[in-house]
Design brief:
By secondary structure, the chain is of the alpha+beta class. The chain folds into three domains: 129 residues, no CATH class; 85 residues, Nucleic acid-binding proteins (OB fold (Dihydrolipoamide Acetyltransferase, E2P), Beta Barrel), CATH 2.40.50; 169 residues, no CATH class. Helices cover 48% and strands 14% of the residues. The strands form two sheets. It has a five-stranded mixed barrel with strand order 1-2-3-5-4. The two termini are 46 Å apart.
Length: 417
C-alpha cells in the first residue's frame, strides 16, 4: 500500500499524535509480541526472540502491500468512518486483526498467505506464525507480576494469562495490581505476549469494565468458552433451560408469526429468571439482540431451543412444514429454497429436519425424493448420512456451536482473586 495515500486517509486529524507514517506505527505495534519461548531450551529462546520480531515486521509489510490494498482500505473505512483515526491503540488493534484474523475474500488470512508465500521458512517459524492466529481479545485485570511477565486475569473467559513483552519488564513498569488493561494477546511457544497496544485504565474503572466484559461475553460466547470449565457449566445450564422452554411452550421447537418472536423470547427468559427469583421483572426486549432484518421480514419464524446450544431462529420455517405436508409445493421457488437452506446450512442444527421426519417418515421420503431428484430416497436408510454430509460439525464435534449464554462466575466480583 502506498504509505502517502494511507497517511492521507488515516492520519489527517490524529490530534494526539500528529502525522506519523503508518509503517512507523505498525513497526512499534509489532515490536510488542516478539518474545518467544520454545520448550525449556534457552539457546533457542534468544534466536527465536529476534526472528519473531523480524517476521512480524515482514508480516506488516506484506499486509500493507498492494496485494491487500483494496481489502485493507475497506476495513479501515468500515472501522473508522471518514478514514480519520484519533486513537493509535484502536488503529493498531485494527491492523493487528487484519494481519492475523481478517477473512480474505479469496479465503484464508493474511498470515496464512504470508506463510504460503515464504515456503523457505523452517517448520518452527511457520508454526510460530500460524500460532499468531489464536488471538485472545480481553479486558484484563492486573493480578501481579512474575519476573519479566505480568499476570493478566481476563474478565471475559476468567482465565489468567502470563504475558510478556519484547521490551522486557520495563514495558510493564506503569502497571500496578488491580489496574485494567484492554487489548490482545497471542501465544508464542509456551507464553503469551501482547499483540498491538494495551489500553490501560485505573483500578477505579473495574465496575465499568466488568459490565463491558459481560456484554462482550454475551455478544461473543466463543470468547468466554475458551475456558473449558465455563463451557461445561454453560452446557449444564442449557440443559436446564431446554427443559424450562419445553415446560413453557410444550415443545423445544415452536412456529409463531414473526411479530410474536420478541414476546415469546421475553416470556421465556422471564420464566427462566423466575426460577431463581419469583419476583423477577421481565427483561427489556430491546436488550435481547433480536434485530435481524431477515427474522422480522419473514411471515413466520421457528424458535428452537437446541439442546446444549440455546435458542436458534429459522425464518419462513412454515414453508418447510408445508413442503413436508405437500411435497408438490417444492416446485415453487420459495418452498424449495427454504428446505434447501435448512438442509445445507452447516451451522444449523439437524434437529428440525429430524423432528419433521419423525412426524411422518413417508412425507420426509417424498419431500427429499423430490428435492434431491432421487425417487428411491428413504429417510430411514439415507437420512442421517444426508445430514452428516451437509452438517459434519454436528457429527464430528469440530464446529459445534457453543451455548449462547455464558455463565458469569464468582471471580468477577472479588478483586485480587
Amino acid at each position: 500500500m502506498d504509505a502517502n495515500l494511507l497517511d492521507e486517509l488515516i492520519y489527517r486529524s490524529w490530534s494526539n499524535a500528529g502525522r506519523r507514517g503508518v509503517r512507523a506505527v505498525a513497526e512499534r505495534m509489532f515490536v510488542v509480541g516478539r518474545l518467544v519461548r520454545v520448550g525449556d531450551e534457552g539457546r533457542h529462546h534468544v534466536d527465536l526472540l529476534e526472528r519473531a520480531g523480524e517476521l512480524k515486521g515482514m508480516l506488516v509489510e506484506f499486509a500493507m502491500s498492494p496485494r491487500f490494498d483494496t481489502e485493507l482500505t475497506a476495513v479501515i473505512w468500515q472501522m473508522f468512518p471518514g478514514g480519520v483515526v484519533s486513537d493509535e491503540a484502536e488503529f493498531t488493534m485494527a491492523l493487528d486483526h487484519f494481519a492475523l484474523q481478517h477473512e480474505l475474500r479469496s479465503g484464508g488470512t493474511v498470515v496464512e498467505a504470508f506463510v504460503t508465500a515464504n515456503p523457505e521458512l523452517p517448520e518452527v517459524e511457520r508454526d510460530m506464525l500460524l500460532g499468531w492466529r489464536d488471538v485472545v481479545e480481553g479486558i484484563f485485570e492486573v493480578r501481579g507480576k512474575d519476573r519479566d511477565a505480568v499476570l493478566l486475569f481476563n474478565f471475559v473467559d476468567e482465565l489468567t494469562y502470563r504475558t510478556q513483552s519484547t521490551l522486557g519488564r520495563k514495558a510493564f513498569t506503569p502497571l500496578r495490581k488491580s489496574m485494567i488493561a484492554v487489548g490482545r494477546v497471542v501465544r508464542i511457544g509456551g507464553d503469551w505476549v501482547v499483540s498491538g497496544n494495551l489500553a490501560v485504565f485505573p483500578a477505579s474503572a473495574r465496575d465499568q469494565m466488568l459490565a463491558a466484559a459481560a456484554q462482550e461475553a454475551m455478544r461473543n460466547p466463543a470468547a468466554a468458552f475458551r475456558n473449558p470449565e465455563k463451557l461445561a457449566e454453560a452446557r449444564r445450564l442449557m440443559t436446564d433451560q431446554h427443559d424450562l422452554f419445553v415446560e413453557l411452550f410444550g415443545a423445544d421447537l415452536i412456529v409463531v408469526p414473526a411479530s410474536e418472536v420478541s414476546g415469546k423470547v421475553t416470556e421465556f427468559y422471564h420464566h427462566v429468571a423466575r426460577q431463581v427469583r419469583p419476583d423477577a421483572e421481565p427483561p427489556d426486549p430491546d436488550r435481547l439482540g433480536l434485530d435481524d432484518e431477515e427474522l422480522f421480514s419473514a411471515e413466520h419464524v421457528a424458535i428452537h431451543f437446541v439442546p446444549g446450544e440455546g435458542l436458534s431462529f429459522y425464518p419462513d420455517f412454515h414453508l418447510v412444514e408445508e413442503a413436508f405436508a405437500n411435497p408438490a409445493l417444492l416446485s415453487r421457488r420459495r418452498h424449495r429454497e427454504a428446505l434447501t437452506d435448512l438442509l445445507r446450512d452447516p451451522d444449523t442444527s439437524p434437529e428440525p429436519l429430524r423432528q419433521l421426519a419423525a412426524r411422518d417418515e413417508s412425507s420426509a421420503n417424498a419431500a427429499f425424493a423430490k428435492l434431491l431428484k432421487r425417487k428411491s430416497f428413504r429417510w430411514d436408510v439415507e437420512g442421517e448420512a444426508l445430514l452428516r454430509r451437509h452438517k459434519p460439525g454436528y457429527f464430528d464435534g469440530l464446529v459445534r456451536r457453543p451455548p449462547t449464554v455464558p455463565p458469569m462466575t464468582a471471580p468477577w466480583g472479588r478483586p485480587g482473586n
